[in-house]
Amino acid sequence: MKHVKKFFLVTLVTFSLPVWAGGDSSDGHSHEAPAPLPVSQSVTPRAAATTEEFEVVTSLEGKKLVVYVDRFASNEPVTQAKVEIEGAGLKGVASETTPGTYVLDVATPLPPAKHPLTISVEAGDSVDLLTATLDTSASVTNEVHTHGWSEWAVWVLAGALLLVAGILFAARRRKRAKKGI
């Protein structure tokens, strides 16, 4: 019986040590519910091109090809420009929605591939021809890390086995103590 008390005392101290270690979460960890994720975590296909005069970034957003045009030297948006796009089955003049942002409607979805684009920008006295490659072959998505029920089941089973092993060990020690071994 003396050994059983020691065993349970050692077990109690061992399993309560993490509690004594300080369960304080002041190290930047939060136990609150995580913030909800945005609806879409996918990265839209993009292409970029630069010349001495202009910097162009295109982005395929749904059924629209959005083109951002800036001056390369000052990074100011290019307004009231004529932006023509050709390639990947697209051909047309993009319309300006906000300063420096131009949109071209995409009639049919682009298949997964690398699509070469030719972009012509006419702004005042400046005219430039840019080429870019729009890669629609893979869109990256962020997955949320979750713990399934199987992971928790493994830990519960391991704890139960440890408890059973402790009980069997204590019972065996008790039998030996009664026999005087």
C-alpha end-to-end distance: 13 Å
CATH C-level label of one domain: Mainly Beta
Mean pLDDT: 82
Structural category: alpha+beta
Radius of gyration: 33 Å
- Write the CATH architecture name of one domain: Sandwich
Query: What does the main sheet amount to?
Result: 8 strands, antiparallel
List the helices and strands in order: HEEEEEEEEH
Unreliable stretches covering 5 or more consecutive residues: none
Q: What count of helical segments does DSSP give?
A: 2
What spatial order of strands do you see in the largest sheet?
A: 1-2-3-6-5-4-7-8
Helix percentage range: 25-40%
Strand content: 25-35%
According to DSSP, the number of beta strands is: 8
Oligomer: single chain
Description:
This protein has 181 residues and is an alpha+beta fold. Among the domains are: 90 residues, Sandwich (Immunoglobulin-like); 33 residues. It is built from two helices and eight strands. The protein is rod-shaped, with a radius of gyration of 33 Å. The protein starts with a helix and ends with a helix. The model has no long low-confidence stretch (mean pLDDT 82).
Task: Offer a concise description of the structure.
This protein has an 8-stranded antiparallel sheet with strand order 1-2-3-6-5-4-7-8, with no helix packed on it. It is built from 2 helices and 8 strands, in the order αββββββββα. It has 181 residues and is α+β, with helices and mostly antiparallel strands.
